[in-house]
Every structure is written in C-alpha cells, then in structure tokens.
Amino acid sequence: MSGPTSRNRDILRAIATDVHFWIPLGVLLGGLVLLDHLR
Amino acid sequence: MNPLDRDLQTAAVPVSLPVDRQRLKKLQTVGMFCGFAAGAWLGGAEAPIKLVNPEISPITVSLIMVCGVFLARWSVPAFVRGTSHLRSDVRQAPHLVVWAILAGCMWAVANTLTIYAIRNVGLSIAFPLWNTNSLLGIFWGFLLFNELRYAGWRRWLGVVGGAIAMFGGATLLAIASSHEAAPGKAALGILAALGAGILWGTMYIPYRKAYLTGMNPLSFVTFFTIGELGTMTLLALGYRGARPLWGELVAARDVLFWLMLGGFVWVIGDLFQQYATKYVGISRGIPLSNTNQLWGLAWGIFVFHELRGAGGAVYAQVAGGSVLMALGAVAIALSSATEREHTSWRDAAEREGRRYGVEGEYVNAGIEGRAYQETAHRRSVFDWLLIAGTTGLFLALAMMTRLPNLNINPAWAAVLLVFMLGLLITCGAYLWRTTEFR
Fold first, then answer.
1. What is the residue extent of each domain of chain A?
2. What is the predicted ipTM?
3. Closest Cβ–Cβ partner in A17, A24, A34 for B102
C-alpha cells in the first residue's frame, strides 16, 4: 500500500518546501522561547 | 518539480474564471457582516469570564476556557452541517490539517503571552501592542496572498487608514479601561505583548491559506482546536505541574461553567471571524472583528459598572476611542475588494492549488461559497452524540455552579444579549442563504 504513504510524503514535502510554512513556524518557536524567558 | 505539481497537471481544473459581479458583491457583503458579528460575539465572550474570581491562576483560566472552546469547535460544526463534511475536506486538501494545527498552537502561545503582558505592563500598554496583529495581517495579506493588489488608493486608504484609526481607538479604550498601574519587568511585558501581536498576526497566514484553497471554516476550526488544546494543556502542565493543576481545576469547579461558557461564546465569534477572513480576506476581516474591544467595553461599563466614579477625562477617552474604532471599521467596510483585486486573489488560490495538488474545481467552489459536489451529508450518530454530550456536560456544570455575588445590571445585559442574538440570527441567516455555511 504505497499510494497513501507516498501521497502523505508528497504533502509533507510540499509543506516543507513552502516558504509560507516557515514563517509561522519560526514565529511560533520564537514565541515559545519568549514564553520560557517569562516563566 | 514537486510531485504534487505533476499530479495537478493531469487532475486539476485551473482556477481562472472570475466570480460573477453580483455574486462577488454578495460574498463581500456577507464577509463584512461576519466581521461585525465576530466583534460582537468575541467581545461578549468576556462577560462570563468577568463573573469569575480573579484568584484562579490565569493559565488555569485559559486552559478551562480552551476546554469549552474545544467542545464548541466540534459540537457547533456537528450541529450546523455534520462532521461528515470534514472527511471530504480532508480528502481534498489534507495538507490543511497541518496548517490548522500549527495555527492552533500559535493561538495558545499568543494567548498565554498576553497573560504575562498584562501582569507586567498592564492592559493599557499591552492591549494596543498586541492589537497590532491586524496591521501585520494586512502586511501578510498583501505580501503573500495578493490582497489589496489593484485596489486603488481609495481602498488602500480605507483599509490601512481604517486599521490605523482602529488601532488609535483601541489605544484610547485600553488606557481608559485599564485599572492596573504598570509594575516592574516592563521590557519583558512589552516584549510579551508584541510577541502575542506577532503570533496572532502571523496566525492569519494559515487561515488565508486554508480559505484560498477552498476549505470550509467549520472544518478548519476542528483541526485548529487540536493544536490549541494540545499546546494549552502542555503549557499548563509545564507551568503549574500535574498535581497542582488538578487541584486548581477541582477548586475551580464552581466556576467551570462560566469559563467554559466564555469559551463557547468566543467560538461563535471566532467562526464569524473565520468566515470574514474567507470572504473578505485578512486585511479587512481581522480589523473588523477587532471591534470586539468596543463590545467588551460596553459589557464592562453598562453591565459590570466598571467605570463608575471615573472622571470626565476617562469618559472622554472612551467616547473618543469608540468613535475612532467605529469610523475605522466603517472605512474598512466601505473598501470591499474590486473585481480586479479578487482576480489577483484567485491567482494566489491557483498557486496554492498547484503547490498542494488540490482540484481546481474544489478551490473554485470554495472561493465562490458554493457546493463542490452535490452530495447529501447527513448528521451521523457521532454528530448527535457530540451535540448531546456537550449539551449534557454544560447542563451538569450549570447545576454545579453558583451565581457570583456581583453587582450587575440585568437590563443592560439583556439589551446586549438581544443585540448579539440579533446579529447571530441575521448574519447566520444571510451566511446560510449566500453560502450554506461553506
């Protein structure tokens, strides 16, 4: 059953190569770091 | 070449035909209307929370609210359309599950940051700082999703000028409604407030991504809330520890109902905000739903007597801030997207469809708020169980709760509730007639 697995891999690759994805992810990580400083 | 691109070249219909002018006008009107309804319900969500004893830790308050939010985000879509729609949306655009969960995580972190911001610098400084999220939303909308392209200087002025006027109004209102003096740790507090604004402003990237690709807001929020509840639970466990957190939750059983009700009301506002984002974009939808501050203030002043005994200067600030916010919102509402701008949105939608291999017809149908495939979706047993379970839980919590001994004005509460329900019914009916909640 390589169909769904291959489709999932393609989706993840499409997300990982989408620059739009890294903007919110970077901001989220920054937010977590900031939150850790505030504790 | 991306493998999904290859799939699309054989499978997809191009997203190119412009929306009929009358249809576009209807969608823009419904989106603007949703923005205003969102403001009323998001602001109204503050009312039940005001009934709660301030001694409970803010993180625990947030966690309980998010539990209410989670239940609402599953049961309201189950009630409105049935969760079977979820499956068809996920089949068409599975990548959006990742985007929705990411957005939910961002919301939870931003919400927790606001707690620290208020604690360190007070509401008057913190609120306007995190309210910059709408300006950032406009920036991302323009940069990444072709919003305000070919819009002409009048619409630019309406949207950006309106958002700046609302920001000024929000600042005045926050100063007027602030009770706290700014204690130490000011720099960290300002950083926390700015961080929350940046997180919320950037969270609209996944929103726009989802709605340009054709996803139904009712599907998006069900995945969004997984990120929201998961992150909030981890943060609460990490910050409070499992045993103390459980102790606080048990001690708070008298007020669980009010907090979860606040979360439920908030979700209704948020759903309208999602529809506003879908049909008028983030550059217009988000500033409009930021009118929630006006509604929150109305509840505070008229129902909870919050400014009683305040001086003339405070009332002047409230009046000035409210007028500025209202004028800003009207300016934005009058700056709906032109056909040419809408065509550039469709270019962005086509790009998204190509990247993720989403069928062009699905994207087209989503943008136009019409059915993708005329299949009858019925509510399943799971939907009814969800609705019954949530109703039962809220009834049980309501029986456990006690009415706080607060001096509230029931007449004004009734007036504001009638306004909120009026907006819910009229806007909901219009949304149903125009898009059937798509």
1. 2-38
2. 0.93
3. A24
